[in-house]
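Recall that a protein's primary structure is simply its ordered list of amino acids. Everything else, from secondary elements to tertiary packing, is in principle encoded there. The following example makes that idea concrete.
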Amino acid sequence: MKTAFRNVKEDIRNRILKGVWAPGDLLPNEVDLAIEFDCARATVNRAMRELADEGLVERKRKAGTRVRQAPLRQARFSIPIVRQEIEARGQIYRYALVDRNVVETPDWLRARLGGTATGQVLHLACVHFGDANPYQFEDRWINLAALPQAADADFNSLGPNEWLVATVPFSDAEISFSATTADARTARHLGCSEGDALFLAERTTWWEDQPITHVRLLFQRGYRMTTRY
């Protein structure tokens, strides 16, 4: 009976943890490991990919697989639905679309998306409320070449956050977090003072190398994001 990839993965993991293969050591190649474990090479490859995803080994084309000098811990983020986030706080959710227009892709956005977005984008600005208090200001751009149906979607009643999650998956995402100050427009929508310190999350998603959306999410003072790794 051939060895399952989970057994191969756990055996390799245990050898690394016990120091059989030390940090920086080059692991045997997949062909030799397949012979040792009496399994297909694809089984070894899958085990190695998962160990690499977990940050225990590092794989390089033509250079083989090495034990990482220090295990890489990866934080995992899901795309949150802001309505659920607000309701989980025990608050009543309300949403308001404040601006909507279709424009040619700005140069800064094209650069942000890796230069692959061309044509028109849908630009949306909206505010999410918890108990009638502004919670999040959403400034979003949707690539109409990838999602032409967004041009006709009714964003007056359903926010783009929920619409996108229900409409299209994503294969890659880039997320950044930073502190910023409220400009006049943001202050007006969040009900804060111009110059107030705010939490900013920027997220860009792709589906099979095609950019889907870029969004800037600004939160009221006191917002906290927690993740587990």
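The mean pLDDT is 88. The chain has two domains: 5-67, 82-219.
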